[in-house]
Amino acid sequence: MEESYDDVLIHMDRKLSLLLHTVPPPAQRMIIIEGEESIAYRFEEQTIHQAIVQKLVRILSGLRATRILVEHGFVQEQASLHRMLDEFNEDVLFLSLAIIHDEISELHERYLAAFYEEEFDAETAMSSTQKRPMIPKKNIRSYLDSKISDDNLGGSSEAARTVSKFYSGYLHGASDQIMDLYFGDPPRFHTNGTLGTSRHREYRDDFWNYMYRGLLSFGFALKAFGKEVEFEENKRMAWEFCRSVGRDYGLYGPP
């Protein structure tokens, strides 16, 4: 599988580079925090396309970070990243479908306004009055349900909510999930990873799903950007990736 993962990540690198070259690049901006001037990069246009590529950046970076954790058996931290990747993938679908269906709704506009809002609106962090609004995930999932049937996506908002709730226990450190680290003879907490255990094997296998979902997100993004040739290439990559482990989710047939 390691070779297949390498191929998928390189594929995503190339597609991300392609999409980044289709949007206006970030520009330098002077910001002042705690009385200190600093140069930062920002997308000045703040478009929906620029938001999509930024989310793809986090998906690709997150997959690479997750792979490192998988290799060393840190399953609790891997599960926390799974929770983050779930949201990034949903966000890419949410934004991409607005373009594909040519209907950027008021919900999308509020999402983008919150997404691009600066972290601080004053010269010092303590005097800042910024309170970033959060778009409820249930609203995003409801939108996804309205645009993609279960047969196409392989799930529903309720399934997504259930998975999110499960992984939130790892992200926020719930007792039930922490106790997964307590085992052995004599039993003890394993804070140096769970390499080679059944729990490690379980999460190592689950990592494949997140690589595959990353490919799906890139596919939706390529479709939204009107990159039909690259979209077909992504379909072939996803199909080959499924075939490499004998899985068939029915989303992409043979090329």
Quaternary status: single chain
Q: Name the shape in a single word.
A: globular
Order of helices and strands: HEEHHHHHHHEEHH
With helices defined by DSSP (H or I, 4 residues minimum), what is the helix count?
10
Major sheet strand order: 1-2
Instruction: Report the sheet with the most strands, covering strand number, pairing sense and barrel closure.
Output: 2 strands, antiparallel
Q: How many domains comprise the coordinates? A: 1
Overall pLDDT score: 87
Q: What is the strand content?
A: 5-15%
The CA-CA distance between the termini, in Å, is: 21 Å
> Percentage of helical residues?
55-70%
Unreliable stretches (pLDDT < 50, length at least 5) are 150-154
Structural classification: mainly alpha
User: How many distinct beta strands?
Assistant: 4
- Radius of gyration, Cα only, in angstroms? 20 Å
What do these coordinates show?
The chain has 255 residues and is mainly alpha-helical. It has one domain. The protein contains 10 helices and 4 strands; from the N terminus they run H-E-E-H-H-H-H-H-H-H-E-E-H-H. It has helices at residues 2-20, 48-72, 75-100, 106-116, 137-147, 150-153, 157-171, 175-178, 198-224, 228-244, and strands at 27-33, 36-42, 182-184, 187-189. The strands form 2 sheets. A two-stranded antiparallel sheet has the order 1-2. Strands 3-4 form a two-stranded antiparallel ribbon. Strand 3 (182-184) and strand 4 (187-189) form a beta hairpin. Helix 2 (48-72) packs antiparallel against helix 3 (75-100) and helix 2 runs antiparallel to helix 9. The longest helix has 27 residues, at 198-224. Mean pLDDT is 87; it is low at 150-154.
